Input
Amino acid sequence: MKFLFDENVHKGLFSFLSKLRHDVKLSPKGIENGEVFELTLSEQRLLITRDKHFTEEQFTSSKHFGIWLFRIRAKDLEAQKRAISKLLKQHSPEEFEGKVIKLVPDDFEFL
Output
């Protein structure tokens, strides 16, 4: 899978997903949300973020490759890894397209 990390996501997840052989890219620092979202579209990447603004209609109404919204303590890397692992085990990449998924400690929900 191809992921784009918003600048507010724990960088430990970058190496975690890279080791699982996913294509992971960091968003350039300081760019606006609209630019981050356009980057996900142009590069066909799923967005991983902590920014709930990406759940607003201006983003969710257009076709996208998925948005994962973290609602786990920012420094709790292990809980974030567990939630991602569970999500990836239970769902195929095609199921993420056009969906917003909220990741909470040890679980997730499709919004």
